[in-house]
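Bench notes, afternoon.
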Amino acid sequence: MVYGHSDLGRSEVIDPITLKILVAGGFGAGKTTLVGAVSEIKPLRTEELLTEAGRPVDDVAGVETKTTTTVAMDFGRITLRENLVLYLFGTPGQDRFWFLWDELATGALGAVVLADTRRLEDCFAAVDYFERRGIAFTVAVNCFDGAARFPEEAVRDALDLDPGTPVVLCDARQRESVKSVLISVVEHAMMASAVRG
């Protein structure tokens, strides 16, 4: 709870506005890392070890050092201002877990589509999902060490995004970088909501 003072000097409780944001993207794009980097609480993680049985369906090309995967969701919380709290829900990246997305998306203000330029095609499904459902999203290009850097317009063209969809570069390990992404999502979602009326 946040406390404020009225003109009469009495203390009153001000309930914060809480907003739900999804964090989606391909397998190994950094969704769990992003939620963990910015969460002010210990994030809830539902990670399991990658196994030999999953080898035929989990393409680790480009992310060979990955040893775990999210099987349900990641959850974190961040307070952007004293009266604005974001609840972050990280989605699983593999298509066999997409049945969870509809539940996770219920009530979401907006989303982050985390993209890895080494495997850009892996985020097409998330872009398509949010476009079809009219959920405002920002594409955040996770700048992995050693990965080629591309201008925002090149990423926009490659993903065939609508002109108003924000594309930002980020480092999913860095709190301030992730906060900038989340601010972009909230601002974009609020503008989209105002346009829809």
